[in-house]
Design a protein that fits this description.
This protein is an alpha+beta fold. It is 35% helix and 21% strand. The chain has three domains: 126 residues, no CATH class; 209 residues, P-loop containing nucleotide triphosphate hydrolases (Rossmann fold), CATH 3.40.50.300; 106 residues, no CATH class. The protein has 18 helices and 20 strands. The radius of gyration is 25 Å and the shape is globular.
């Protein structure tokens, strides 16, 4: 008969990091006598000031008795985490005996000791019963979000919603560009609402034209008072880093009213990193931080801030005469989704929306693909060869993220549709110039026609038309 256990992990445990990064299997070495047997099931608790149980179930799939190891695999996922302390106290108060488990040696991880607690069936059912049910299939989740948006009186076609969702999975920074009033910021708000994100975990911040450095987001150290002057954006980022099991949404509205490279520079550099743990932003120098600490006047902020994986950024971009152009440095780090028209015939009447489906950050991240889809690598090389003739080209980062998008679109979009969207969103925004690029446009038109990529082909036709009319063209209308 299967037994029930709770694996208790420190917040810094590499096991915990592996689970949150999507690793499906863990191998642990048990101290004798062995506790786990094939078929046993385990929940995972994070040790911190507010302990919680992650929305995953691990089952023992194999035991190597001579080596005293057990391999566990993720077999179930739930919608959200459980509040460990709120479950009638029986688990915490029982003080079960614990065994220290030492991870199987692996050079890429610095494993911490973990503890194994036996659970009664009643405790197991109480914990899993508070997790909001088994995780929805991804398409079912997106249908729910679409229904929620319609009930709120807004309409976005299925492709736009799916595209936005896939973009967030690929890289947690998305640009929504187009005319004012087309629902760009509303999409981010309603998407978050449908996932049960409360108002305090959604920040919409209006960019101002005078933002010329990052102090308007991150605050600054006041040398006269010796204190750190914070800003609402920094407070929001710090709160997100302290609640890694919750989703946080940050919307920068009218992002290009100021030069994005000026006030968002540290964020752009952080987004270059592949691993979320490496996406860090400096607030003060380490030397100043330690000096203030030695003087007994510690700062109220850390020396550096990690952009936690539970934090999703969206920037809205208006394309008009009041805004700044978006540079390649920004375009290289984000997908750009366009909003230039509204189908007035499809705007629904508001009704009572369905109940939100609260998702933990870990559950949302479990929809993400881990390996890129490289099936179109040769086509991307052909496009790069064409662009190189006018010294444009595409970089390694763009290619990798296109292929990650393709992987994340599996089951949601047809592969050709996903590829078409990526060429339009990640490559064509870089194409601009005078009559010199006419040959490149013609070659790209022929390629997208032959590959049956209608979205990219149509945009290239528009660009070529503007080139003939104005003597200059760019992706933006």
């Amino acid at each position: 008969m299967a037994k029930y256990f709770l694996l208790s992990l420190p917040r810094t445990s590499s096991y915990l990091q592996a689970i949150t990064a999507g690793q499906a299997r863990l191998t642990i070495q048990q101290t004798p006598p062995p506790s786990l047997q094939v078929g046993d099931r385990c929940l995972v608790a994070q040790q911190d000031s507010s302990p919680g149980v992650l929305p995953v179930v691990l089952s023992v799939i194999s035991v190597n008795s001579p080596a005293q190891t057990a391999t566990l695999a993720v077999t179930e996922r739930y919608n959200h985490a459980a509040d460990f302390d709120a479950l009638n106290g029986t688990t915490n108060q029982s003080k079960p005996s614990r065994r220290t488990l030492v991870a199987e040696e692996a050079p890429q991880y610095d494993y911490n000791p973990i503890f194994l607690f036996p659970l009664s069936k009643a405790n197991w059912e109480a914990i899993t019963g508070s997790m909001g049910g088994l995780r929805l299939e991804e398409q079912a989740l997106l249908r729910h979000i679409h229904s929620y948006i319609l009930a709120r009186g807004y309409y976005f076609d299925q492709e736009t919603l799916y595209n936005y969702h896939i973009c967030l999975k690929t890289r947690p920074f998305v640009l929504l560009a187009g005319l004012s009033g087309t629902g760009k910021s509303k999409l981010t708000q309603l998407y978050a609402e449908a996932l049960g994100v409360p108002r305090e975990r959604y920040l919409r911040l209006a960019v101002r034209p005078n933002w010329n450095d990052d102090r308007y987001l991150l605050g600054y150290f006041n040398t006269l008072s010796g204190s750190y002057i914070s800003e609402p954006a920094l407070d929001f980022l710090l709160e997100a880093s302290e609640h890694e099991q919750d989703l946080y949404f940050f919307c920068l509205d009218e992002m290009n009213l100021a030069h994005v490279e000026y006030y968002f520079s540290q964020f752009l550099s952080a987004f270059e990193e592949e691993r979320p743990a490496d996406r860090r932003i400096t607030l003060v120098s380490r030397r100043l931080y330690e000096e203030r600490k030695r003087q007994g006047q510690p700062l109220t902020v850390p020396a550096e801030l990690q952009l936690a994986p539970n934090l999703l950024f969206t920037g809205t971009v208006n394309v008009d005469e009041t805004t700044q152009p978006i540079s390649d440095k920004v375009l290289d780090r984000a997908n750009t989704i366009e909003f230039f028209s509204i189908d007035l015939d499809k705007i629904p009447q508001p009704t009572v929306p369905p109940d939100p489906v609260p998702l933990s950050a870990l559950t949302w991240q479990s929809y993400k693909a881990q390996q890129p889809d490289t099936r179109y690598r040769e086509l991307l090389r052909a496009i790069n060869a064409i662009l190189n003739r006018v010294e444009i080209g595409i970089g390694y980062r763009v290619v990798r993220e296109i292929e990650l998008y393709l992987a994340n679109s599996a089951g949601l979009l047809e592969p050709e549709v996903a590829l078409d969207l990526q060429i339009k969103q990640r490559i064509l925004p870089r194409v601009r110039g005078t009559e010199v690029i006419e040959g490149v446009l013609n070659e790209l038109l022929a390629l997208t026609r032959d590959q049956r990529l209608p979205r990219s082909y149509q945009r290239l036709e528009e660009m070529k038309s503007r080139l003939k009319r104005d003597g200059y063209t760019s992706f933006w209308r």
